[in-house]
Write a sequence for this structure.
């Protein structure tokens, strides 16, 4: 589970690439499998 609060509803055009990359990385990390190992 991930939680991210975004306080802006309008973003500058020059920030679009950075925002798109951020959400792509979030999607990739949420789809990763987690292996729990008892130690």
């Amino acid at each position: 589970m991930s939680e991210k609060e975004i306080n802006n509803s309008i973003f500058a055009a020059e920030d679009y690439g950075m925002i798109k990359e951020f959400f792509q990385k979030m999607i990739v990390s949420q789809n990763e499998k987690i292996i729990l190992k008892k130690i």
Q: What stands out?
A: The longest helix spans residues 16-31. The chain has a mean pLDDT of 90. The two ends are 24 Å apart (CA to CA).
